[in-house]
Design a protein that fits this description.
Elements: H1 3-11, H2 19-29, E1 34-37, H3 44-58, E2 70-73, H4 77-94, E3 98-101, H5 108-116, E4 120-123, H6 125-133, E5 144-148, H7 150-155, H8 159-167, E6 174-179, H9 184-193, E7 198-201, E8 212-218, H10 224-232, E9 237-241, H11 245-257, E10 262-265, H12 271-283, E11 288-291, E12 304-309, H13 316-323, E13 333-339, H14 344-354, E14 359-362, H15 370-374, H16 388-392
Parallel strand pairs: 1-6, 1-7, 2-4, 2-5, 3-4, 5-6, 8-13, 8-14, 9-11, 9-12, 10-11, 12-13
């Protein structure tokens, strides 16, 4: 590895490779085609960025207008931004110019950057195809091509576009494909575009993170929102997953109305709203992110102590990717699935397929003592939450209304003394996170009672509070 890149890693306290990095780097640095599989949070991003930058540093070719030297394809704009963020310090020390390309924003800045010349293009397939068809981009000079989250691209129906794009790259270039799972759809790409690839699987396809505790809370339907309010009002960052966009929006409003600063992330939001909401969550202004599966991959926020499946996902791969938002880079984390009476069989089948054995606890409501074990610390609420405009992405400003007061109320957190840090694992395991996780102090204005949802329909849309007829 070039010494300059090692120094960049040291700035982020990265001194030892993860298993997927140690397995793939010898081959990828040597220019071999690589097929790498590692679970979410295993370090796949650096596993392909480091050899990409190293090989471009060694190359005697120079960037040209409209003709990038390297291409990274990713399924979502959030993942594109995440990859570009990790790439930036490596590219800077190597003197490389990078550009992201995705839809939902104007194409003019992207086209201008391509015209000026870029070394590394990080792109979503749809917008990149548009730019190529307009004559604004040419992939004929690509030396290295990388596909990240190839299985997710298959799930989203992007494989035809991916195939068309790969066919526009030179056949002799290096190609690397990284994925959390290697199924039939991914194998089609491997056979078509990778030449004698070296395959590395750093862990089993269903390998759960060893520092991740899995819990199922058996609750009555009308207690779901009150239980979520209690868990998310404890110290630390939380990511909640719902099954639908409508459910994410409705639950975000309910949490903010009850004093939990929350933002949403789903496909109905424009790019500016997505960026604004993620910035609020990164900074700690929002302590809870309510998302659909769009955030199950690629979204990395330090010190996410708790992941909650408010709606159990439809299949086990989604469960594992959602859960991977916590317990990253060696940290500990807790994963909770809310389960109603009607979901018992589905959740049992889901966890079995995911290869985990969760601890199941019947919880009567937000005052149940086990919630303090899962999410210890004082419960603190902020009047008005984050502010509905910012939380829903409908305005440029939000803000906390009302005066913040410390809680001394019933069910707040035991002693009333603020406990530092993120949530520890249950039992004797060490705590994860720190007091610097960014959770603002909140006022206690009484524990709200939950609104009942549909008695039979347990989809995310039931968080709207409307009863089905």
């Amino acid at each position: 590895m070039p010494g300059d890149l090692i120094q960049v890693l040291k700035q982020f306290d990265i001194t030892e490779p993860t298993p997927i990095q140690a397995a793939t780097l010898p081959d990828s640095l040597a220019g071999r085609d690589v097929l790498g599989r590692g679970r979410t949070g295993s370090g796949k991003t650096y596993a392909f960025l480091l050899p990409l930058v190293a090989r471009l540093m060694e190359s005697d070719r120079r960037r040209q207008p409209k003709r990038p030297r390297a291409l990274i394809l990713a399924p979502t704009r959030e993942l594109v931004a995440q990859i570009d963020e990790a790439l930036a310090p490596l590219a800077e020390v190597a003197g490389l110019r990078t550009r992201t390309v995705f839809g939902g924003v104007g194409q003019h800045p992207q086209a201008q950057a391509l015209k000026a010349g870029v070394d590394v293009l990080v792109a979503c397939p749809g917008r990149l195809e548009d730019l190529i068809q307009q004559g604004l981009c040419d992939l004929s000079a690509v030396e290295v091509t990388i596909l990240d989250e190839a299985d997710h691209m298959a799930d989203l129906g992007f494989l035809p576009a991916v195939r068309r794009l790969l066919e526009k790259t030179p056949a002799g270039g290096q190609r690397m494909l990284f994925s959390a799972t290697l199924d039939g759809a991914v194998n089609v790409l491997v056979k078509r575009f990778l030449v004698d690839p070296k395959t590395h699987e750093a862990d089993s396809a269903q390998s759960p993170v060893t520092k991740m505790d899995h819990h199922v809370l058996h609750v009555q339907h009308e207690q779901r929102v009150p239980v979520l309010v209690d868990l998310t009002s404890a110290p630390g960052r939380t990511v909640i997953f719902t099954r639908t966009k409508h459910g994410a929006k409705a639950l975000t409003r309910q949490l903010n109305a009850r004093g939990v600063p929350a933002v949403e992330l789903h496909g109905n939001l424009g790019q500016n709203a997505r960026t604004r909401n993620m910035d609020a969550f990164h900074s700690g202004k929002a302590t809870t992110l309510v998302a659909t599966d769009i955030a199950a991959r690629g979204i990395h926020v330090d010190d996410v102590a708790l992941v909650i499946h408010a709606d159990p996902p439809a299949e086990h791969k989604a469960y594992l990717h959602r859960s991977g938002r916590t317990a990253r880079a060696g940290a500990a984390g807790t994963v909770i699935t809310l389960m109603t009476d009607q979901q018992v069989r589905d959740v049992r089948d889901l966890t079995r397929a995911a290869g985990i054995t969760p601890t199941t606890t019947k919880v009567s409501g937000p005052n149940h003592e086990f919630l303090r074990v899962l999410a210890p610390g004082e419960r603190i609420l902020v009047a008005g939450g984050l502010g509905t405009e910012l939380a829903s992405g409908n305005g440029d400003s939000g803000g906390n209304s009302g005066q913040r007061r410390r809680s001394g109320g019933n069910g707040g957190g035991g002693s009333g003394q603020r406990r530092g840090g993120g949530r520890p694992r249950t039992g004797s395991a060490p705590a994860s996170g720190s007091e610097s996780s960014g959770r603002p102090r909140r006022s206690r204005n009484g524990r709200p009672s939950g609104q009942g949802g549909p008695s039979g329909n347990h989809s995310a849309a039931s968080f709207s509070g409307r009863r089905s007829r």
